[in-house]
Write a structure and sequence with these properties.
single chain, Rossmann fold, five-stranded parallel beta sheet, binds shikimate-3-phosphate
Length: 174
């Protein structure tokens, strides 16, 4: 274990903003896997899906995962919703699964002031029926790969971040 915290969870559950506040509160740096993929490939996630296909995107996720395992320590890592599936997820750090039910995630996304943009940039949210199926299929796997589960629905970001800090003990060395 390299002292990393890896935030997993379904699209739109708030992994990115939780990671940013967690970084701020713990005094650790943060990185985002989708940002790493975009800078490494010089393409937006949406473009990778449409031009190169989902399998190429998953390959890039696995590449990022190997790099994180080898090179990164004491960092807050936010992930894309499918990143939990990389084979070495538990070697990267302590996996924290952010949980909310599907309807609450979608409701929060649609009522966001930037809803259109948030939905447009996520190819797997194009069809809500398939997104729900994906959620149902992934839920047990998120739980299986995580060391810690934190409930997100109906709670403030401060509460969520404080719980992650308590459960993981991070920031004590910062
Ligand atoms: C994906 C989630 C996205 C992004 C890509 C695939 C997924 O990230 O990695 O569109 O498979 O759930 P967010 O979880 O940040 O939306």
């Amino acid at each position: 274990m390299a002292g990393n915290i890896v935030l997993t969870g379904f699209m739109g559950v708030g992994k990115g903003r939780t990671a940013r506040m967690l970084a701020e509160k713990s005094g650790m740096f943060g990185v985002d896997c989708d940002d790493l993929i975009e800078s490494f490939s010089n393409k937006r996630v949406k473009k990778i899906f449409s031009k190169l296909g989902e399998s190429r995107f998953r390959e890039l996720e696995r590449q990022v995962a190997l790099w994180l395992e080898r090179k990164v320590s004491d960092t807050i890592i936010s992930t894309g919703g499918g990143f939990f599936n990389v084979p070495n997820i538990n070697k990267i750090g302590t996996v924290v699964y952010l949980h909310s039910d599907f309807d609450s995630i979608i409701e929060a996304l649609f009522s966001h002031p930037n809803a259109k943009k948030k939905i447009r940039k996520r190819p797997l949210l194009k069809d809500l029926g398939s997104a729900r199926d994906l959620y149902d299929k992934r839920l047990p796997l998120y739980r299986q790969t995580a060391s810690v589960e934190v409930q997100v629905g109906g709670r403030s970001i401060e509460e969520i971040v404080d719980e992650i800090i308590t459960l993981t003990g991070i920031g004590r060395r910062a």
